[in-house]
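--- STAGE predict ---
source: upstream dedup step, 1 unique chain passed
mode: sequence only
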Amino acid sequence: MGPVKNDLMDDLAWSIYEYLVDESTKYEGSLLVLMPITKIAKQFERNHRTVTRRLSALKNEGLITPIIKKDYVTLYSVADAETSDE
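--- STAGE serialize ---
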């Protein structure tokens, strides 16, 4: 009916972001997290496509950056939203 919603930065995306921050490890000033999409999908009881679309939205906002992607596991650098706004 209406236009397709391109902005996927919804509550789910922010919840995934907060989950990645909580699971991350600080390394040389960066927050890093090695996370399979399956684990995120199970955590939020969503399918892989839904999670992948929210991860893409987080990438587009500059909140996560994939560093290494191998099969279904990705190492992300997670931006600290509190300091990136300053």
